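Figure-free illustration: sequence to structure, shown twice.
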Amino acid sequence: MQTNNLDGVHAGYFQIQDRLALDYRLIAVSPARQPPQPEPSPLFGLLGELHLLDHESQHLLRQIGEHDRGLAAYLKILNKRVDLIGRALSLQLVEDMGAPQPVTLSEAGLTFSAQQPLPVGEWIALRLLLPDPIGLAANVQIADCVRDAASGRYLIQVSFAQCNDAQRQLLARHIVQKQAQEIRATKHNERTST
């Protein structure tokens, strides 16, 4: 185990502190092979498809709004209903995965804590529930494992090097949204404190 490399995977990338539900399991990968594709999860797949459809339809909704405000308002209501269904699905996943925990997230990797150490260089099947709600399932490699003396837990750092472009875009979008949310909160706090 390395002891001073907690920024290693995140180096050069913008990092956020967040609370996300996640679970993982070790997977066997032979040295000559790439890790297998993550097992498809129906709920994770559905959340991803809902988010992708929402993202793809935003420009269409704006175009409709320019020509027919009533129709655009109705479609926004339908979109909110679909979002509520997505949130209900994410609640089911949170029950299965456990409560959200503090993490450090960047486009390059994730740092989270665990009760048991994980071997550096091994692969895990990671499921991560972003708050939008978006489910992200990927096979990731353990880049570092350090025991935190204060808590007695292990800080596990994983690399997203094998993630595909769609997964990277989801991560980047979440990071930018979280950063914007933190900036708005800081500005609001500055205004209310003066």
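We now fold a second protein in the same way, so the two outputs can be compared directly.
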Amino acid sequence: MRLAIVSDIHGNMDAFEQVLADITRSDVDEIISLGDNIGYGPEPDLVVKNVQACNIPSVVGNHELAVVQPKYLSWFNPVARESLLKTIKLLSDQSVRYISKQESHLVSFGCRFVHGFPPDSALIYMFQVSDSRKKQIFDKLNERICFIGHTHILEMISYDGKKVQYNPLNQGINRLSDEKKYILNVGSVGQPRDGDNRAKYVIWNSLQGTIEVKCVPYDIAATVEKIRAAGLPEEHAQRLW
């Protein structure tokens, strides 16, 4: 099984289009999205429609959560909240209905998929949780591997039954140990925040026990102009560089 996992596309269709092309060349069996397909970017409706057209299962992200449950808008900082209110206006009724049906998590292929923090939170950031709490979660999880997004930064968190360890997920092949459990942050397609502005996603090879990090260039300038044309905050445009 070769499974592509994408996250945090954030309405960036230019990045998503190039990632889909790279996935097509990479001979994968399935694709799963970890949510935040919308928000920040200029083409949220087009992204959602392409997620549907490609039959990509997707969990709910914090941005989707705010669309279907407006009480969560207060969770966001003022700039992100302004962006979300404009994003909602850019979404078709069909896309909103699709978003409203997304689940908090998925369990498939022996793995767990959640946007923020397992078992099912779209809001909690991994860095907000103590190691002792992480150990409790690792011990409770039936799945050996959990994929997350939310921070937009690639990371490998492993647990051997005693100690939680943190390691980077580097571009290329990263090998997993059969003796450990993992929470793997797959980074962001549409708005990386790791100092490398290329779109990121990963491929899990279940037979070889590896995670391959893919870094895909796209036309950032085109997306920046679309953000400005849509009247979205300038901060979202500048962050892409």
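Summary for the second example: Helices lie at 13-25, 44-53, 62-68, 78-90, 93-100, 131-140, 220-229, 234-239.
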